[in-house]
Batch of 3 targets.
Target 1
Amino acid sequence: MKVAFAGLGVMGFPMAGHLAKAGHEMAVFNRSPEKAQRWVAANGGRAGAGVAETAAGAEVFVLCVGNDDDVRQVVAEALPAMAAGGIVVDHTTTSAVVARDMAALAASGGRAFVDAPVSGGQAGAESGQLTIMCGGEPAAFERVEPVIGAYAKATRLMGGPGSGQLTKMVNQLCIAGVVQGLAEGLHFAKRAGLDPQAVYEAISKGAAQSWQMDNRWKTMGEGKFDFGFAVDWMRKDLGLVLDEAGRNGAALDMTAMVDGFYAEVQALGGRRWDTSSLVARLETPR
């Protein structure tokens, strides 16, 4: 298919690369033009000078940008330039409100919008093993599912517009709780005089096991956080969760508490640390 891709960050760059490897005719855009040129040098295709030029004639326009405002701006510029009946696929983590607004805007011009936030991080993007939660009309989802399958191990339509973003919110609040539990567990083990590695080996094959435990326990114990999903990004996501809870009445006491803990990590200088850095606030003298 003729595919355009906007947003070549740590996630978007490899995701667009998988689309090129799948044989799609690619056009890419990034606010920093040199990054788009570097992508073209590595993968072929063309780099657009602007969003509209990149989206010209595209059957599918994929974006992976920063926040709600970025999505509104990029989609508004892209839609008029796309092919008739084209579909926008948004991998940005945003509010469900903006997803619904963009779906309505696309429909008004005879096009479609699928909100499709991802889970799996940079490693999942590079390996093509992301989990993608989608919201939108079934017909649009069916058309784009084979396209985004180039970088996904699991893709599911969760409901109408905004449903993908709501599901991503559930994902993030669950992760926040697990990481806080791991941080306190590791902190407790050290204070109790236990060998953290021995504790991990003893409990990681039972009910306490999780992806976060298997992939972050060792680095948390070593105080290494210079990788992974940044605290700033997690706070943005938890802000979306808490805003939505304010609208739907969900009681998210733990999520609000952990969001406050992440604010403390930011104050320690950990804005770009991995989310597992929650343990740092416990290990810092008070």
Target 2
Amino acid sequence: MGYLEDAATEFQVQGLELDWACVSWDGDLRFTGSEWSFHDFRGDRWCNITNPDNRRYLLNAYRVLLTRARQGMVIFVSPGDSSDPTRSPEFYDSTFHFLTGLGIPALP
């Protein structure tokens, strides 16, 4: 059994090679069924990111996080919470289905 030893941002893991990694995928980058949707959490709500540079920055943050593991990785996509409008399941479901559609197995 493994344990979460340390949590880190994309800045802290830049250049590292880890044996195992767990990436938590949030509602900031969402697959909408045909394309990616980019968001930033401000105050008490999600806002669309329209600036192309900020979109590339967000994609790069996920790229860094998803390329650190040598042996294996778990990608955690929240099920959301229908009672919390900032964590609606619709923010996460299509991304989860996209990732599992790529062949990434879902854990029970």
Target 3
Amino acid sequence: MEIEIQRHLRHNLIVNLLDGAFFGFGLGFASFATILPLYVATMTDSALLIGLIPAIHNAGWQLPQLFTARWVARQSHIKPLC
């Protein structure tokens, strides 16, 4: 197993670094804090709609965890962190 890990280590490192870089690059184009509110502001003057953009982003991160928390808590086996 250790030989298999060492064989693929360089490839995995490069691919994961590129994945993180492209994710950050893409997130910069659709930033929920700056770019999307500016885009919506060009279409409407409604402060409510412009202010909803960060709220919808935060809800998208938080709501799935809230919906699955009860199901996860009922599991008999929880995978260890380490």
